[in-house]
Amino acid sequence: GPKVLQIPSHQIIDMGQMVTLNCDPVSNHLYFYWYKQILGQQMEFLVNFYNGKVMEKSKLFKDQFSVERPDGSYFTLKIQPTALEDSAVYFCASSLQQDTQYFGPGTRLLVL
Amino acid sequence: QQKVQQSPESLTVSEGAMASLNCTFSDGTSNNFRWYRQHSAKGLEVLVSIFSDGEKEEGRFTAHLNRANLHVSLHIREPQPSDSAVYLCAVSTGTGNYKYVFGAGTRLKVIA
User: Using 50, 70 and 90 to split pLDDT, how confident is the model at B96?
Assistant: First the structure.
């Protein structure tokens, strides 16, 4: 089926640093999403993005978070500055319309 | 706010026996339900999507939806050891049905 790639697969950084998580969505998809899963907990919606804009974000999407997809390249999630509670697996997803979302394998972020 | 719960937390079945997984949700106005599975360190694989009450079959996977009972189930016919994974129920919510609320998952183990 359609594949979403995420780079890197793992990232370890010090608290306070900036991190950028990259997502390579399915090529013709128009809607993009980030979800967060803390170890042992449910996956939770962070944000979705369409036509260059954030459509909706959850309360987990703190002011330190931002998303963009410049010129059809990677869809990125930037956290600046990072905090300990940002340690989690971040999943990217994409969809053609507002239908089935296809997920990447996740980026495991550890903030020390 | 939509809440999604899955049961059981874990399930072990013998190869060839039917596996049945359950998902309950709190808001019956949702009309998009999906089952995904996740193998370790891999992305989520969509198994079956269902949008109306009744049954939807995709290969060996069959979803049953009963919105009046706030329940959607997944049945796996003739499970194989390669079906061992975490199975996630996802309920779309929001105006455009683009935001997924996930359950915590059922960890399925199929033994030969």
Answer: low
